[in-house]
Amino acid sequence: MDHDSTDHPKPPRRARRGSQPDLPSPDLIAADVDPATSAAEEDDEARLPEAPEEPAEAIAEGPLAIGHAAIENAVRLAPTSAGVYRMLNAASDVLYVGKAKNVRKRLTSYARVNAPLPARILRMIAATVTVEIVSTTTETEALLLEANLIKQLRPRFNVQLRDDKSFPYILITGDHWAPQILKHRGAQTRPGRYFGPFASAGAVNRTITALQRAFLIRSCTDGFFESRTRPCLLYQIRRCSGPCTREIDFPGYSELVREATDFLSGRSHAVKELLAAEMEKASNELEFETAALYRDRLAALSAIQSQQGINPRTVEEADVFAIYQEGGYSCVEVFFFRTGQNWGNRAYFPRAEKSFTPEEVLASFLAQFYDDKPPPKLILLSHDIEECALLADALCVKVGYKVEISVPKRGEKKELVTHALTNAREALGRKLADTATQSRLLEAMAGTLGLPQVPKRIEVYDNSHIQGTNAVGAMIVAGPDGFIKNQYRKFNIKSEGLTPGDDYAMMREVLERRFKRLLKPPEGDAAKAKADDDSFPQWPDLVIIDGGRGQLNAVREIFEGLGLTQVSLMAVAKGPDRDAGRETLFMPDREAIKLEPRDPVLYFIQRLRDEAHRFVIGSHRKLRKKDIREAGLQEIPGIGPSRKRALLHHFGTLKEIERASIADLGKVPGVSAESARKIFEFFHAQAG
């Protein structure tokens, strides 16, 4: 994918500079896009496809007989070699595209009148009036042609990859003496080096912004660059080195470009070591402003890697696919790993009938996915697919190098697949929950839980602490319009003599502080305004807490002590092994409630609980990070001056050390795996 220009254009003479910087063009603050290949950005997850409905009545014998007759006619002329067949209805619409090593044998299996075939296949046969056949030299060619035709024709009875488009890349241009960094889509014809694919434009934009801070490479267009007489705003905010007006010379700028290329090529450790050495050198020479610049560049590189999440240690280049099915829908989560870095992930929701197994959906999805894009050398799957070797051979033929497809059973590769599968399950859960409107979900919740009325205001409470320290409670609010974030509240626990870890006592303080304020009746004009107010209510119709029967009984006692009788209560207990989808719901004076895993009401309740957990954990971590920053690294057991210096050299700032994963911490010289784990747990200890 590299396109390197053979000659470096000579830099122009230094331009005259003025006293004030000009503002760059509006698209320069964000990552620049190659105008020749720019495309509309559609990074939102696709909507769920409409589920094909099963027919209410059995298939009539007449149409099925007509379909069998049409297929029998095709069998007589079908070749015994490899090929692709298309089944068409009376309107010449393509119903199904299939491939076979022996086309005649495959069509014969459809023509058998008494063959035990799935209902989906019988409906397809009943609608068929014509069969068209294309012969191919090999089965590999048939597979590639089948994938291409399915994407073009979108047959009703095939698995269909929806919302497919080209992925964005990062391009460092090679046709100018001062290379530009930009986002690129489409054909890679412009000279330069391409890095990708990235899962979304957002991932590319974030990476380019951080790379500008780290390597000070320009993002402006060549026309804007040539017209400069003084540096633009990006130079002033230290996101460009100013090559347009020779604020940096040609060798210096070329070195910055080389460092950026090395980082994107997977040699990030060497680049960070070099910057750390330069920072140390400048510090020793008392050039503190220069040392601060290197520190900020180190922090920018660490920010890129922290945003990438998982960065594998043993997987250099791979695409990871995991499929999850629920409620008749499928979600395929794809992760992209290049140069040992995670370059993003994306969820797909292919259209497929409910009778398709995960293996069938995934196999068809893969063939279509790589129809118009090159595969990596390694593809990891969550499920064993039929004809895995055939697909690998087809991809090898297409790209000219060996492609391995495997389902890992252990080690880091298995962990990557498991992580992708978790994301697939969560993405599908979010989509299923979003398919119903908020009002319908509230109505369904009222019916499922037996509430006296449809709730207009739901309050969810949660606590967070670590062994009683930095204890905080939180309340989130939801209603017919979704989450009402301007009414979220956090409660710093103030009770003296609180037993560390006493969740009941913390919940009591939170609820008393919340409801005693409501119990105080308004006076005068405020009372009249409250009586005439038909807006969003201040009193909740339903209170949800995270916990089981014990937490429910404790809150019930608190409410009885406050004299609250008009508010419904519910507790949500996590399933075995904390599995989402297996929660138990507890309500006063009722048996425990277990909803079906695909029930939209259950997904809605999970979203409410997860939002409360997210909000309270965020509030807790703000308090904890304040304490950590005051104490610094000295408070971490086993971290002495040498390791502290190594960590700061590697990451630049304490904030980036907090963000680092265990794997990234383990890459610091002198930091063992055990020390990396201790450092990570110090900053990310699970709050209770």
From TrEMBL:
InterPro entries for the chain: GIY-YIG_endonuc, GIY-YIG_endonuc_sf, GIY-YIG_UvrC_Cho, Hlx-hairpin-Hlx_DNA-bd_motif, RuvA_2-like, UVR_dom, UVR_dom_sf, UvrABC_protein_C
Molecular function per GO: DNA binding; excinuclease ABC activity
Domain UvrC family homology region profile: residue ranges: 320-559
Domain GIY-YIG: 80-159
A GO cellular component entry from the record: excinuclease repair complex
Primary location recorded for the protein, binned into one broad class: cytoplasm
Record-level GO BP terms: nucleotide-excision repair; SOS response
Biased composition (Basic and acidic residues): 1-10
Subunit note: Interacts with UvrB in an incision complex.
Classification via PANTHER family: UVRABC SYSTEM PROTEIN C, UVRC/OXIDOREDUCTASE
Name assigned to this protein: UvrABC system protein C
